[in-house]
Each structure stands twice: as C-alpha cells, then as structure tokens.
Amino acid sequence: MSFRLTYATMYNPPEAMHERFEAALARVSAGLGVRHDLFIDGADRDAALYSDRRAPFDNALHLGSFAQASEADADVAMRAAQAAYPAWRATPVAERARLIRRVGDLLEERVYDIAAALVLEVGKNRMEALGEAQETVDFFHHYADDFESHAGYAHVLPDDPIDGVASHNASVMRPHGVWVVIAPFNFPLALAGGPTAAALVTGNTVVLKGASDTPWAARLLADCIRDAGLPPGVFNCLSGSGRETGEALAQHPLTAGITFTGSVAVGRHLMRQMAGGAWPRPCIAEMGGKNPCIVTERANLDDAAAGIVRSAYGMSGQKCSALSRLYVHDSVADALIERLRQQIAAIRLGDPRLREHWMGPVMNATAYGNYRQYIDELQSGGATLLAGGHRLGEGASGPVPLARGYFVEPTLAEVPPDHPLWQQEMFLPILTLHRYRDRDEAMRLANDTTMGLTAGFYGGADEVAWFHEHIEAGVTYANRPQGATTGAWPGYQPFGGWKGSGSTGKAIASFYYLAQYLREQSRTVVE
Ligand SMILES: NC(=O)c1ccc[n+]([C@@H]2O[C@H](COP(=O)([O-])OP(=O)(O)OC[C@H]3O[C@@H](n4cnc5c(N)ncnc54)[C@H](O)[C@@H]3O)[C@@H](O)[C@H]2O)c1
Ligand SMILES: N[C@@H](CCC=O)C(=O)O
C-alpha cells in the first residue's frame, strides 16, 4: 500500500517527503519579506495599514508585511460577495463541485511550498505542516464529493392526499448568502479552507478573515482559489485583527452566517451577536478543549505513553484537541510516569525547520508569558513538577539561538484535583496528572469541565464500551498510540465538540456538516 499522509501516519514518512520539503523550504525562504495584500472581488487590494510578521522561532526572521483590513475594506469585501451571490447560487452543483475540486488540486500541487510557509509562520514541525496542507486538500475534495452524494439535499415528497387535486411537494435546501469564515492561528490553512469549501460548494459566497497571528496561510489559500478560476467576488480574503476586521465582519448587515474557529470567549461572543440583529443567523462555532485521557490498570502502558506524549506535546500543546488532563489508575501510575519522563526527555525541541526537531516554539509573547505564569500557579497550588517547567531562553540549537524564539519545555505535573488549572484551557505543552483508585471517579473528573471536544482511553478491550457510554466528548479514541486525543482526519474521524467546545453538535467533515450551510425550503405547487 502506498504512503498516505494523515495525522495518524505522519510519524514515519518516506525519505522522499523530506527531500521535497527541504527543496520547498529553500524556495519559500528565498522569497520572504514581501507585502501581502487583501484579495477582494477577484483582485489584490491595497490596505492603508500593513503589519510585519516574524517567525515564532526567530524574531529576526521577517516573514512579510500583511494588510490590516479596516472596517471599510471589510465592507467592500462583503458587498463584492453579496453581488456575486445570485450567480454563484444559480451555478449548477456539478460546476461548483468541479471548481472546488480544482482548488483542492492546486493546493495539492503546492502542498510542499504551503507546508514550508506553515513551518515558518506557525512554528509547527514539517510533518504537522504537511499534514495540515494535505488535510486542506482533502477538505476541498471531501465536501465536493459529499454535496454531490447528497444530490444537493433535494427531495421529492408525496403529493397531498386530496381527491381531484394534484398538489406536488418537495423539500430543497438553499444557501444563506454571504458566509463569513474566521480562522484560528494554530491551523490557519485547514480551518480557513475547510469551512470555505463547505460554504462555497453549498452555494454561499465567502469572506474569509485569516488568523491575526498567522495571516499568510489564508493568503496562500486565496491564491489557489484565484488560480482555480472562481468568479470574482465569490471568495474574498482579508487579514487583520479580531477586534477591527473580525468585528466589522460579524456586525456587517450582509453577514448571513459565520463559521468561527477559536477560543470559547470569542466564539460565545459571536454566537450572541448572530442571535441578535433583525433575525437570528447561523453561527457554527468550533471552540476550545480541555481534553482528558483515562488510563486503567489494564492499559498497555507503552501504547498509552506514546499516545499521551504525542497528544500533549505535539505542536507544543497548541491544538484544540491537545491532551491536557491525565487520569491514571494508582496501581500503574508510577510505571506510566516513568515511561512518560523517558519519552519527554527524548523530545528534540528547537528550530522547526530542522528535521530532527519534533517540537517547535509557542506562538507569541503572550503564550510564552502565560507558560511562566501557569507553572508558577501550579507550583504555588501544590503541584509537583515531574518533567519540564522551564522556558528556554539560553543556549543554541541549530542555526538560531533559542533566545530569539518562544521555546518552552514539555511539562508534566501531578496536580491536586481542586486546582483551578484543571478547568482552564492553557493551550501550552503542560499536562496535568491525577492518580485515581475508582474508575467511576476518574470518569466523573474527566467530565468535570465545561468543554467536551476530544477524549482518550487506554484500558482493556471490554472497558471501551463503558468509556464510550459515559465520556462527554465529541471525538473519542480508545487504545490509540498514534495520539491519545489528537489526529482526526476528514473522511476518517468527524471532528467536533460537545458542551462548550462547539455550538452545533455536528462535526467537521461529518455526514451532517454541509446541511448547516443551507436552509430548508418546503415547496408545494398545485397544478
Ligand atoms: N474546536 C476546534 O475545531 C478548534 C480548532 C482550532 C483551534 N481551536 C481553539 O482556538 C483557540 C486558539 O486559537 P486563537 O488563539 O486564534 O483563538 P481566538 O479566539 O483568539 O481567535 C480566533 C480568530 O477569531 C478572531 N477574533 C478575535 N476576536 C474577535 C472578535 N471580537 N470578532 C471577530 N473575530 C475575532 C481572531 O482574529 C482569530 O482570527 C483555542 O481555544 C483552541 O482550542 C478550536
Ligand atoms: N484536527 C486536529 C486539531 C485541530 C485543532 O486545533 C486534530 O484532530 O488533532
């Protein structure tokens, strides 16, 4: 079987993948420092303000200057999308699907260059970056296939049972209008591209706001959409802050729906905004996680240790799916901790451009500051640090001194169960551990959170049904060494949160996802 890249297979890629990535990294690095404009109505558009972005692993590396869209720019984009909407909505499904697949094909042709940009911009390692770029390709293909397989969700219903009258009935699904997509910093391509593909294939037009900290990815997506030949105005791309650009889009009267991916606080704010106004409008909000893993006395501890380390520290803990809370049966806790400490000690951390570095920096000065503060809070709250706990500001690693980036150690801490940080998403490589004696008590603690995105389990095969029955999470993994709580892939694992982690209860790339971009029209016609 040939190699297929997913987050579950990325740990042992073929050598050719590294060679192609190295070539792309050299190519992309040679072109750094240029200006990136807005993309509105099929053309580049200047902004009044540009903001310089630097690599999170090296503050001396200037990536480029990115347009900061003003309220007026947002208005121009919304009007362009509104003007393009009637013709796009009327475009036959097969043609829309063809164009969406074409975007996927172009993304795939550029997958190495895009992955190189993601390494530079987000600081994730090359396999995570290649994974994100490939995942975006798959979203475009998946949603085109899915919409066609549902035959556009059009259904003919029985005629009314009225004697002597032909009264024909049908249910059709119709798009909403201009759909706003707002992306997070950690998956700035996939979580811009996925919702964009879904909104477009269902007949909406789109205004995308790229993530504030990582706007380059969205602009690379815009280039593929432009080159695929979508009509002007059907897709528009802005970069800018949440406070100015994001708010301008969310408050715009032409906004018919939003897909937001990001923090709980902003997501709930947007949900409230979309519920207000002249009428309530849909808001698909994919939000944070505080993801647990339960390890029972019957777990395979080698599998558990591998999956836990990958999910707690991969991408420096900056995944919504990252493992942050670990509940281990007392009888196996010491043995598991020993394995975890060994694996943590073996993590290679540093400049993410280098193949040997599995863990890169955290995103910015705020995250770097939060790390120090959380470690202090853990220690003053009675926690025992079992591994890590330091920021790395000294020494050298590869071509760049670590002091020029935001590097922190992967951290494992045994923490009293009433510590407030069990409740708060830290979004950092910090894993808290609790030893339990009673399995039901472990489940109660695992569910003791306002969030419910992903959850992991390691135990006996006959305990898995108990885990599934009781855990309050939208995405679950049992006995998976590839990742305790991370690594969903379109077409394999639908991805969405329960409770405060998601507003809809319907997962990304699930059977039910595309219907959320449509509104039903019931049609009765009497002959
Ligand atoms: N559930 C998921 O699928 C998923 C996936 C990835 C990330 N996340 C979550 O995202 C968070 C990390 O990402 P982040 O730091 O970029 O999140 P964030 O909420 O700070 O920002 C997300 C996006 O919202 C924009 N924004 C901020 N304030 C806004 C406002 N008032 N109006 C409109 N837009 C606004 C930002 O500019 C950014 O583009 C974590 O909580 C993580 O768990 C969730
Ligand atoms: N889809 C990714 C997480 C995306 C959120 O940050 C995973 O499943 O690990």
From TrEMBL:
Keywords: NAD, Oxidoreductase. The keyword NAD applies. The keyword Ion transport does not apply. Belongs to the aldehyde dehydrogenase family. It holds the Pfam family Aldedh. It catalyses: L-glutamate 5-semialdehyde + NAD(+) + H2O = L-glutamate + NADH + 2 H(+). InterPro entries: Ald_DH/histidinol_DH, Ald_DH_C, Ald_DH_CS_CYS, Ald_DH_CS_GLU, Ald_DH_N, Aldehyde_DH_dom, Proline_metab_enzyme. Residues 56-519 form the Aldehyde dehydrogenase domain. The active site is at E286. Its EC number is 1.2.1.88. This is L-glutamate gamma-semialdehyde dehydrogenase. Pathway: Amino-acid degradation; L-proline degradation into L-glutamate; L-glutamate from L-proline: step 2/2.
